[in-house]
Amino acid sequence: MSPRGRRRKAEALEWPHREASEAGRWVLEAPVQFTGKEKQKNREEDQWEELDEPLALAEIQDSVRALATGKTPGPDDLPSEFYQTYSSIIAPRLLRLYEEALSVASLTATQREELLISLLEPGKSPAERLSYRPLAMLNTDDKILAKVLAMRLLSLVPDLIHPDLKALCRLQHFSERQW
């Protein structure tokens, strides 16, 4: 093979690599352009980090205020009205209790208790087994913690649910859905 033929062969082998290295240099030297997704990603990371923050006394007090009244209490026989009346005394103690429970990842035995009862559905025969539905009566302190955690998750729900399903979300109206 002549020297000229070898040079062409070497150039042919070198050509794709030279182009790739130039493209790589262009990628490294190109100005960075943000699309807005980075800001959204940072916002989502911040929201997830908020879930890991320690509980606050205000969250517990808000949860106690939001409890439904006039409901039958659980096995501890303490209704939501009791917690609402003595919220200023009970909330700090609940905060310590919940912090301890979350640190060991377990509720106390009394918090895990529930009373399971059968309710007769209206208009159904009491003689039929399928006329009854089960109802779990939970302690109010368990409901308070569940409410605090649910209120924290509520801020993430719009980002977690696909836009096609948002008409079924709380605080979303079907008329707001963009087609």
Give the arrangement of secondary structure elements.
Blueprint: H1 3-29, H2 37-52, H3 57-65, H4 80-85, H5 87-104, E1 114-120, E2 132-138, H6 140-154, H7 157-160
Antiparallel strand pairs: 1-2
Report on the architecture of this protein.
The protein is mostly helical and 179 residues long. It has a domain at 56-154. Helix content is 53%, strand content 8%. The protein is built from seven helices and two strands; from the N terminus they run H-H-H-H-H-E-E-H-H. The protein has a two-stranded antiparallel ribbon. The protein is globular. It starts with a helix and ends in a 19-residue tail after the last helix.
Record the strand order, biggest sheet: 1-2
> How does the helix and strand content classify structurally?
mainly alpha
Distance between the termini: 68 Å
Contiguous low-pLDDT stretches (5 residues minimum) are 12-18
Helix count equals 7
Topology as H/E string? HHHHHEEHH
Q: Helix amount, in percent?
A: 40-55%
Strand runs, count: 2
| Backbone CA Rg | 30 Å
The whole-number mean of residue pLDDT values reads: 78
Give the DSSP E fraction (strand runs of 2 or more residues). Answer: 5-15%
